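chain below, 692 aa
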Amino acid sequence: MNAFLEIGCEHLPSRFVKPALDQIETLAKRLLEEHRIGYEHLESFGTYRRLCLIVEGIADRAADVQKEVKGPPAKLLKDAQGNFTPQSAGFAQKNGIAPQQLVIKETEKGPFIFADLHIKGEKTAQLLPQIFTQIITSMEFAKNMVWEESGLKWGRPIRSLIGLYGSKIVPFEIAGVKSNRYTYPITSFGRKPIRVEKADKEYYVELLKSQPQPILVLPQQRREALIRGVMNEAKARGYYADLDQNLVEETVYFTEHPVAVGGDFDLKFLTLPKELITTVFKTQLKMFPVVDGRNDIEPYFVAVRDGISANQTEVRDGFKKVMSARLSDAVFFYENDKKEGLDYFKNKLAERTFVEGLGNLLQKSDRTRELAMWLCDRLGQDAIKDSVTYAAGYAYADLASSVVYEFPELQGYMGGRYAELEGHPEEGQAMAQFYWPLSSNSELPDTLTGSLVSLAGKMDTLAGNFLIGQIPTGSEDPFALRRQAFGAVRILLENDLKVSLQELVQKAFSLYHGKDTQQAEAELKNFLFQRLALIMQQRGHQPGSVEAVNQWYSLPLADVETLVNVLEENRESETFKAAAQAAKRVCNILKKTTPSSADVQASLLQLPAEKELFATVCRAQEELAALAASAGTASYYQQFLHLCAGFAAPLAQFFTDVMVNVDDAALRNNRLALLARVRTVLTEGAADITKL
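prediction:
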């Protein structure tokens, strides 16, 4: 037997549909488990107007359960006359059994009365109304509506409900709508109901597909039909469709039967930058651009309508009129921006607030330029300093332009375009990629100029927001600080920039003159470490390896990764493991008792084991001092770990032969001081081997 639920509603925004289907599936699994109802397969699917759930092979009743219920103490079972007491009789009645069925069982607190219950599972048909109701009323949306007296909050008004168990209706009512077996066609093709006879996915899918106006209720069906139709329309014109996956996904969830409609547009619009045209198409018109083999845009479009129409020519003309109007607006904005120029836009930044308490965007622009220039000086990049200075100085200018005001997605790109038009192609490329990477794993800026400018902008944003306590918590991150921190770390690491996070953070904070930065720096340091640790894991490193690098904050990140590589090459060797375990034991001893003096007196070393350990730590410190000139190289780290491994045998012998906490205070302190010197080498140098 199968069970089926369909929630018919007014048009849900496309971004609501996939999360809603995921919720239905999750809620159904949880509720069926709670009610002990078995099933073979469960699946959700649907469109922006109908959200469906099919449960195949559902058990005809809930599973029986054995339950043990604890009652009053055993002394209250019967009174002196041998009759059941009111307490035991009431306990039995409450649990639906006769007093004679009560039993005595021993517990940790003595003997108690128990009721051993066998609870028979209810029939599935009796539980489904409650389950279906709970699924619907438990759903959450980014924005809700209230439309009737019960006050149900839901994504859009519910207009129909189907609940079937086999071929029988599952009766329930939500928001004044009673369940039945009727669904409805695509809105523009009338409201004559479609009768659903049984709870069967294949039957339901084919039933809707066979209507005079077919409905493709499975998302995968719509995706395949959409891609096929769009590609065919582009191919008919001799070109290819730009199948942006975000637009494909969005279109799948705002149609029930996507039908591609191809058309052309005036050649004059090709004077617009490609990204401006495609942004108008994808974000405002939900149309697919058409491109040639070199990915250059051609004067065609592919729009998508919902449902098949006999008047496709009129539909095409309607799409073309709307598209022409929007592209004409874009031409107007673009031509005006070209007349104004970047200097005009940059000066307008003084009228725009960056973040409340952090001044305006012109001040942010100046800080970004100064930080970028410092990076050039710090890295010895005099050859690109002029380009970096220009790109950083104008990086935010396009935020005051008409095009970016209308199309925020083009920030950075339009600034780069305007810089190219003003004779600065290299700087324009850096400005176009200023906000890269756009996600934690997307592309970094192509050039060193672009990388330094992007890095400077991100670090200024991070420093400023942390100064005023604007720190991401939970899912709240209005300024995308997590993404900016990911980007900053990746730029430093993947470009092998020889500057540490500590230097960069402190310089960024110093540009906010007169601010107390101590707490903000500590919080930002921790925030950046979390991003670094995640990036290192994505690059194939083991958890804990980065944490073991004591100097991750003060070393260039490429050097940090070098040390991580060395640590991971050695961490599995038996000698190194033994040294790490012994180092942990040293740390545990020193947590409980610390030496009153850090000096180790050689004259107080009595046993061979402590003398050997002292000699080992002295040699290690001398060798590390001699290697200081090569610090940061793989060979230095290899030598450091070799010295660490050399502590395994002396420490093992020390812990076998030497009692640390002896009664003699001077002797005890000397041995603690010796262990403290060992701890310094093994945990406070290049790495803390106890964290591996």
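The two ends are 54 Å apart (CA to CA). DSSP finds 24 helices and 16 strands in the chain.
thats it, cya
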